Here is the input.
Amino acid sequence: MSARLSDYDYSLPRELIAQRPLERREHSRMMVLHRAAQTIEHHQFRELKTFLRTDDLLVLNDTRVLPARRLSNDGAVEFLFLERLGRNRWKCLVKPGRKMRIGATTKIDDIALRVEEVTADGERIVALHKDSDLYAGGSMPLPPYINRPSDEKDAARYQTVFADSAGAVAAPTAGLHFTPEILGEIPHTFVTLHVGPGTFLPVRSDNIAEHRMHAERFSISPQAASRINDARRLIAVGTTTVRTLESARCKDGEILAQEGATSLFIYLPYHFRTVDALLTNFHLPRSTLLMLVSAFAGREFLLRAYEEAIHERYRFYSYGDCMLIL
Here is the structure.
């Protein structure tokens, strides 16, 4: 059943971790996995349409990444602002945590900030001495494996071209490859899942079944639900879309329009109810994302594909290449 954390490990040369996006989104490579035949092909993302049928429907996550990263005035503390709780109160992550225990103070934009609470998950509840929109001066929250500060280019490129509903602190990276032109040629609809910081949390238990996911908010509009229910084959773009579709309430086998939250953790031997094919990026070893994709493709087949991707020098993670699993 592959329930051990060590079953989802692999070794990746650091130089294959993409530190910047390609000049053009659609120039990414695309590895194509055929589950039935257990075969692997190498293509370009701009060839995606050639692998789709006329009655397929792409489902994409239209969340918009918030410019949630801020530094204290003295540069000693980094904040990731997760949620505005009220007029003067915010929930955030801080680094280093030892500098921001209960009662600790600092300033952002010369506005005093005080830690009121530390949650069980290590998040901070902070109060500002006057109201301020902390996102107004923030920068993109690039993941920790990108070893540089975010810049003006990231403000555009760490965001899908169809991003609409603000609320994420990480991009739904499988969607980063699309251009308006490519998307305009393919039948598609959107759902929303606001990606939270839990996407980067490591699995700490050797028995992966003991891991608990953070809840993330999602929504499916009536128009999207109707199109999803009418589709012959659903192609999920990204693991966040998979979790949204697989978490959605159904009636008589059809997905309902809804708003909710999901903490669904997908791993073997999960049985997929809704998703028929998956476009996804390459994921970190021992991550919940790798476990989800392993459940969809089969662990041995997927890890063999990762070995081939490393041999063929694919670019990995958020700004890297992608994989189409049919």
